[in-house]
Structures are given as C-alpha cells and as structure tokens.
Amino acid sequence: MCRCRRFRSAPTGGRCTAAAAFTGLNAASGGQRGMTLILTNRSSRTCYVYGYEGLGFLGSDGGPQPTHLSRVNVAHTQVTLRPGGNAQALLTWRVYPEPSSPLEYPQQVEITPPDEYSHLIASWPSEPVRGGDIATWPLSAARPGPVPTRAGAIQSAFNGMCMAVAGNGSANGTKVVAWKCDGDTAQRWTAYSDGTLRINGKCLDVTGRRSPSGHATVAQASGGRSARCRSTHLAPSSVPVPAMC
C-alpha cells in the first residue's frame, strides 16, 4: 500500500486533478488480488470526479511496463469531494503466471484522475501483476477522514530492531520500545493518509520531543503536531524517535 501527498482542485472548484492512495490489499481465491484506490481532496476547494481513473505501471527507473487496464462496466455517478473528502475505486488483478501472460513486477504506478492529463507517481505495493492486466471499478464516494495506506513493521537501519508497543498495550502513555523483530502484533504499525502512525487504535506520539530525555509513546490521535509522524527511525540510543513534520 502507498499514498501520494497532493491533491488539487481546479480554480473554479471543478474536476479534481491529482491524488492517490492505495489501501486494503487482500488476497482472494484463484490467485486474485484486490485493493482499494483512494483519492483524497487535499486542496481548499470543493471538486468532483466522475468515472474511471487512468493507471499505468512503471519500473524502478520510471520506464513504462506493460499495462492493460480494463474498466468494469457498471453504473457510476459524479462524486463531489469537499476538502478532505475521499473517493474510492476497487482494483483487481491476478498473480499466477501463464505461458502467454508472464508476471510483471511494477515498482511504481502512474495515476491520472478522470478526464485529466496531469498525473501522480506512487510506489506500487510489492505485488506481481499477471501480464500487466488490471481491472478497475468506477470511482464512488468513500468515508471521509484519514485512511490506512500501508501496514507492517518499522525496522531500525542502525541495529535491525523493530519498533514495538510495550506489552502490546493500548493505554495512553504506553511506551514504544526497540525490540527484536519477531512478527508480533505489537510491531505491526499502520500508516494513515494524515501522516500518523497508528497501532491498537492509538497514534505514535513523542513526550518531550524537544528534550534529550524525550521518549515515544502511544496516545489518542488528536491531530496535534507531535502525533503527525511521516516516518520513523531508531536513534543511536535505541529509543524510537519519529521524524516529525
């Protein structure tokens, strides 16, 4: 899963022009994969989307990869997005190779809003796509507010340890510690489209973030600056310290 950080509306509040976030990667039978594409209006104006987004796979060098986008023919309507509003579209593809359709391994994806030429490039989740064939449903209204964009462990580049919630707790003020990576649920964080990192219904926060004795905890998401964590690393002292925005 991944997210892109910008979304613009036309000056008159017309069509939405650029945004994308992926969320909800799920396996299904027959080697099929499904994922929801989320478009979020990050501008200060109301805009709308109608129909289907454009999508193209790219390699790690930014060069195009085979992409065959099919549009599922079902009824669709215009979706009006106020600032912060979301629209969604289901994407499906297969991962089992066939002699006539080898697997493609995209590293990036180019998303173009309906009836627009501007696009945004984002990282593609680590999933192969058979023959570059992918289907999309039309955009529809989605629940407003932050959406999950990626989940997994956060590992230190310094000592290989993972960021974990002590005792897998959920109480406000529970400490976040460095621990041996073992796949435990206490190490599974979810990044949200508002820039927060969350676990057990709470947000990563830093107490005394301007102090050398500051430490990381989990707390109720309040929208405060200290809870808006773009990325995380472990300091040399092995105390997890988020890179604040």
Characterise this structure.
0% of the residues lie in helices and 44% in strands. It has strands at 8-9, 16-18, 21-27, 32-40, 47-49, 54-58, 68-71, 79-81, 86-94, 103-104, 108-112, 120-123, 129-130, 133-136, 140-142, 148-152, 162-165, 176-179, 189-192, 197-199, 202-207, 215-219, 229-234, 240-244. Strands 3, 4, 7, 9, 14 and 15 form a 6-stranded mixed sheet that branches. The radius of gyration is 20 Å and the shape is globular. It folds into 2 domains: 8-142, Immunoglobulin-like (Sandwich); 153-244, Trefoil (Acidic Fibroblast Growth Factor, subunit A) (Trefoil). It contains no helices and 24 strands. The model is unreliable at 1-12, 24-29 and 223-245 (pLDDT under 50). With 245 residues, it is mostly beta strands.
Task: State the CATH architecture of the largest domain.
Answer: Sandwich
Low-confidence stretches: 1-12, 24-29, 223-245
- Report how far the terminal alpha carbons are from each other: 21 Å
Query: SSE order in H/E notation?
Result: EEEEEEEEEEEEEEEEEEEEEEEE
Largest sheet: 6 strands, mixed
Supply the number of helical segments.
0
Number of strands: 24
CATH level 3 topology of the largest domain: Immunoglobulin-like
Helix and strand content put the structural class at mainly beta
Helix share, percent: under 10%
Cα shape:
globular
Q: Give the CATH level 1 class of the largest domain.
A: Mainly Beta
Oligomeric state, counting identical vs distinct chains = single chain
* Structural domain tally: 2
Give the structure's gist in a few sentences.
This protein has 245 residues and is mainly beta. The chain has strands at residues 8-9, 16-18, 21-27, 32-40, 47-49, 54-58, 68-71, 79-81, 86-94, 103-104, 108-112, 120-123, 129-130, 133-136, 140-142, 148-152, 162-165, 176-179, 189-192, 197-199, 202-207, 215-219, 229-234, 240-244.
